[in-house]
Amino acid sequence: PHSSLTNCRNNHNADRSALYIFVLVWCVTAGPSVTPGEEVNGWGNPMDLFDEPFPDVSTYEDFHTIDWLREKSRDTDRHRKVRSRRVTLLDAWSGWVVMLLIGLLSGTLAGVIDLAVDWMTDLKEGVCLSALWYSHEQCCWTSNETTFDDRDKCPQWQTWSELMTGHAEGAGAYVLNYFLYVLWALFFAFLAVSLVRVFAPYACGSGIPEIKTILSGFIIRGYLGKWTLLIKTVTLVLAVSSGLSLGKEGPLVHVACCCGNLFSSLFSKYSKNEGKRREVLSAAAAAGVSVAFGAPIGGVLFSLEEVSYYFPLKTLWRSFFAALVAAFTLRSINPFGNNRLVLFYVEYHTPWYMAELVPFILLGVFGGVWGALFIRANIAWCRRRKTTRLGRYPVLEVIAVTAITAVVAFPNPYTRRSTSQLISELFNDCGPLDSSRLCDYVNDPNMTRPVDDIPDRPAGPGVYTAIWQLALALIFKIVVTIFTFGIKVPSGLFIPSMAVGAIAGRIMGIAVEQMAYHHHDWIIFKKWCRPGADCVTPGLYAMVGAAACLGGVTRMTVSLVVIMFELTGGLEYIVPLMAAAVTSKWVGDAFGREGIYEAHIQLNGYPFLDTKDEFTHRTLAADVMHPRRGEPPLAVLTQDGTTVEDVEELIKETDYNGFPVVVSRKSERLIGFVQRRDLTLAIKNARQKQEGVVSNSVVYFTEEMPLLPPSCPQPLKLRCILNLSPFTVTDHTPMETVVDIFRKLGLRQCLVTRSGRLLGIITKKDVLRHMAQMMNQDPDSIMFN
C-alpha cells in the first residue's frame, strides 16, 4: 500500500492539466453560482468547489478560548449573504428584540427576588397573620393601630414568641426568638447549598469573575444555561434571606447574562457566532446592574468599565436599551413599595463644604486599605479551601458560616436586620419624625425652625449606644465577609462592601458633627459652621464611605460614582463621591493593582488577559514560543503528504488546539493553520458520508487536487477548514507587541516565522504564563488555554 501511495502522490503534477478541464466542465454543468467577493475568504473558502461545509465545524470545545478574528470573519460573510437576500432590516431588528426580551425577563426576576427576599428575611423573626406572604413592613402598612413610637408594631404582625407562647417580652421570649432565628437561617442556607450542589454547581459565587472571563472569549459550557438560571434565582433568595454577609447584586448580573444566553440561542445570528453572542452578554450585564441598583446608566458604564472585553458602539446603544427596559420593568413591579426605582433614596437638606473633603478623602483611604486587606485575606482563605480538605465539605462549610453569622448577628440590632435595611438607615438624614437610635439627639424645646432645617444638636444616649453597636457591627462585617465570599451559594460583594463603608462613614460623620457643635470656634469650623446652623450631615459620610469601600474592593471609578448617585438620588454630591472613589483606587493600587474579581480569575486559573495590566519586560517572541531548545519539534501537517491515519495518530497523541500546515517538513514554509476540532469532525464526516476514504487516503490542503488512478484510495480534501491567513510574527518581535496583539485582536495563538519559514507557536496560555513568570508568580496557575 505504501508504494502505491507513493505513486499516487507522484501523479500530482502530471494530472494537473486534466484537473483544470474537469473543474471547468463541473463549473459549467453543476457548479453553484458564486457571487463576487465570496471566493476570497481568509478562512479557507477560495472557490472551494470540491467540499461542502462540514456540520459542527467552527464550534469550540469546553474550557477553550474562541478565535475572535475567525468569528469576525464569519459574521462578515453572514452580513454579505444577508445583504444579497435583502433582509437587512429583519436582521438588524433581531438584536433589539433580544435586548427587549432580556430587559423584560431580568426586570421581572429582579422584582420577584426583591419581594421574596423581604418576605423570607422577616420570616425569621415572625409572621403576618392577615396575609402569610406579607413582609413585616407590608403587614403594618394598612394597620390603623400603629403608634409613632412603635410604628413597626401592629397586631397583624407577631413574632414567633408571641405566636407560640403569647409573650413578646422576657428572657423566654428572647431565647425562643433567638433559637428560631438561627434555625430559619440554617434551613435557608442548607436548602440553598443543597440545590446548588445537586442541580447547578455553576450557580454558586458571584458570577462576575466567570462572566468577565466568558466575555473575554472563554467557553464554559452550562455556566449560562437554563438550569443555572433557575437554581441561581431560587438559591439567591435563600442565601440572602439566611442573613449571610452577602448581597444579590453580583449574582443578578449572572442571572441577567443567563437570560441573554437564553434569548440569543433563539436567533442563529447569535447562536452560531460566539463573538456576536458576547455582544449580547455585555448588554445583559448592563441590564443586571440596572435592576440590581436601579441604576441604568451606571449599569452601562459598569459593563463598559468592569466586565466587557469587546464593546463596540452598537453594543453601547443596545446595552442602554436593555438597561432601560429592565429598569422600567422593575419600576412597574415596585418591589420597594415607595414608587421609586432607587434602592436607597436620600434627600439631604445641607450642602457639603470644602473643608469636608478632608474626612471624605480619609474615608477613601480607609476604603482602599480595607479593600486591599480584604482581597488578600479572602484569596488566602479561598486558596486554602481549594488546596486542603476543607474544599471537600462545601455543605458543612456553609452551615458553619451560617451558624456563626446568625448566632453573632442576632444580639446586635444592626446586624440582625438585612444589610440593605442597615445601609438605608445609615444613609438616612435625621429628621424630627425619626425614631432610630442614630437620631436620638438632645432637642431644644424652644426651637422654632422648619422641619427640614434642624440645626446640629448634641448627641443623646441613644446615639452613643448606636455608635458602639455600629463599631461591633463593623468588626463583625469585616471579619465574616472574608469567610463568606466564595462559599458554595450565590454570594455578591457589593452590599457587604457598602455596609462596611457606610458604618465607618456614619461613625465618622457623627464624630465630625459633634466636633463642629462643641468646637464651632475652631478655625476649621469657624468659616462655615456657625452656632445653631445645620453644618454636617452624617448620612452623607455614610454614602461616601460606602462608595470608598466598594471602590477599594472592585477598583471601579467612573461607573461606581454614577451607580452611587443613581442609587441615592444625590446628584449634587458627585464631587465627594469622586474624591473618595479616586482615593480608594489609588490607595488600593498601592498594595496591588488587581481587584477582587481579577484576583479570583487568577486564583481559578482562567485565561483572562486583562487590558489594564502593563507589560514592560524586554523579552522577544523567540523566548516564549514553543518548541524551545531541548523540546520535541513542533507538530505540523504537510499540504499534500499526510494520510488520514497520520492525522488521526497525531490527534490521538497530542492535545493541541490546532496544527500549522506547511509545504513540506523539509522547507517548513507556512501555508495555514487548521483547528483540531475542525480536523476531527471533518475526518469523521468524510468517513461516514464519502465513499472510499480509508486510513491510507491522502489529505490535501492544496487548492488543486490531482486526478488519481483507480488503484489509489479516495483522497480527502480539507482546504475548506484551513485558515489561510493565520496571524504571524517574527522571532524578533518584542513580547510587549505580542501581548498587545493578543489583547486587542483576541487571538488564541500566533505563529512565529522567519522569512516565511515556521519556527514555533505562541498560545494565549504561553503569554499568560510568561507574564506571570515575569511578575514572580506561579506560571502553572494558568490551567486553561
From TrEMBL:
It is found in: Endosome membrane; Membrane. Keywords: Antiport, ATP-binding, CBS domain, Chloride, Endosome, Ion transport, Membrane, Nucleotide-binding, Repeat, Signal, Transmembrane, Transmembrane helix, Transport. One of its GO terms (cellular component) is synaptic vesicle. The chain crosses the membrane at residues 88-113, 178-203, 224-244, 280-304, 316-333, 353-375, 395-414, 466-486, 493-512, 540-565. The keyword Repeat applies. GO terms for molecular function: antiporter activity; ATP binding; voltage-gated chloride channel activity. It is a multi-pass membrane protein. Residues 1-30 form the signal peptide. It holds the Pfam family Voltage_CLC. Residues 625-691, 722-781 form the CBS domain. Its main location: membrane. InterPro entries: CBS_dom (IPR000644), CBS_dom_sf (IPR046342), Cl-channel_core (IPR014743), Cl_channel-4 (IPR002246), ClC (IPR001807). The keyword Signal applies. Belongs to the chloride channel (TC 2.A.49) family. PANTHER family: CHLORIDE CHANNEL PROTEIN (PTHR45711), H(+)_CL(-) EXCHANGE TRANSPORTER 4 (PTHR45711:SF2). This is Chloride channel protein.
